[in-house]
Fold:
Amino acid sequence: MNIFVVNSGSSSIKYQLFRMPFNQPVCSGLVERIGLENSVITHKVHLGDHEEVKQLILDLPDHEAGLHEVVQLLTDSKIGVIQDPAEIEVVGHRVVHGGESFAATTVVTQEVKAEIKKLFPLAPLHNPSNYMGIEVAEHIFTNAKQVAVFDTAFHQTMPEKAFRYAIPNSYYTDQGIRAYGFHGTSHKYVSEQALEYLDKPDAKIITIHLGNGCSMAAVDAGKSVDTSMGFGPLSGLIMGTRSGDIDPSVIFHLVNQLGYDPDQVNTLLNKRSGMQGLTGFSDMRDIIKAMDEGDKNASLAYDLYAYRIKKYIGAYAAVLNGLDALIFTAGVGENDAIIRERICQQMEFLGIQFDLEKNKIRAKGIREINIAGSPVKVLVVPTNEEQEIARQCYQLLHVQAASVAENTSTHASGY
Ligand SMILES: Nc1ncnc2c1ncn2[C@@H]1O[C@H](COP(=O)(O)OP(=O)(O)O)[C@@H](O)[C@H]1O
Ligand SMILES: CC(=O)OP(=O)(O)O
Ligand SMILES: [Mg+2]
Structure:
């Protein structure tokens, strides 16, 4: 089954093509700077022991133009991996907000699209571009089933005491105002990898996803029981451009004393805050460089970032009533040894015995960065949201196809 996975962002598209049931992608790529001059497509064809990489720089006015170029690469006479877009049987889409409607992976219908659209105000940086990705893919891959995999789905197991806010009940019952949680595909993928690695299905785990967006989850025996993002992907940890937790009184002050309108508040907290607001940079590599050059703001921001994570570790260890493993993942979590060190130091009381040397070693795959015998394991687990999306699409459609085949044969045999 050819499954094309699309992770459509506001100015980028990440994609991978899988021939399920094989877990390794046939090709993958990234379209960046959509809508700006000099858009870049980096396309990689995976050939067993090596990769063939092709980079294109061109002007892509919108996502449709971007995906058309990707199709050209997929069907290219030299490096193509398919001959016709009709060979794609399933397009799996990452959709960030699924509200309470979607606890599982879902085939996209008009009703599903309407629901995703209804959730635009709750995930303004994400759902509009996820939706656009679905519409464009429908035009291009006309033979394919479109499937949505929601960031919120994994967190639907949270108990009510974890997802409700202390505001009048009708705001939940009538308006759906509650915590949903995000990055679920990543938290699910890395926690499952860790459970397998630990060989302990009932392990108590804290997963720490540090990418552009950052969130943590408390995972008990494979189920999410709490997470740091809430109603939208803005609360909790300090992120690239998002503030994370902030006292709502600040918003009243911005509005009442400084005359901000709702859009200005939204832009401030979603796009101009976090590491960007504190340092002028949103990319952790730039912040580390600035810190090395003696930039005090960068140093303070780095401290704030680590401190917030430490607080959530304490909270989630209490929620879980114990801890077997701490998992670091995503761009920053997998690559930034210094942040892992800042977070894990002086946590011996919790049973976290961190190994400074192991932490510095770069390697592929799962690795352990605790001292041998540490009561709590500290693991770096590379995330792979695209592979998890492909797996869930395959499971959904393969199971559906198998049950249709079974029904047909039962009916054909006349029982
Ligand atoms: N070697 C590195 N050291 C520190 N941070 C890194 C490194 N490589 C990548 N990053 C960080 O990872 C971030 C992107 O993470 P990623 O998980 O790809 O995010 P997203 O999927 O949200 O775009 C970058 O903004 C950068 O801050
Ligand atoms: C939900 C979210 O924050 O996603 P990302 O990290 O891709 O921005
Ligand atoms: Mg990501």
Q: What stands out?
A: The longest helix spans residues 385-412. The chain is about 40% helix and 20% strand. The chain has two domains: 2-150, 200-383. Residues 96, 126, 151, 182-183, 211-213, 233 surround acetylphosphate (ligand 2) (CB under 6 Å).
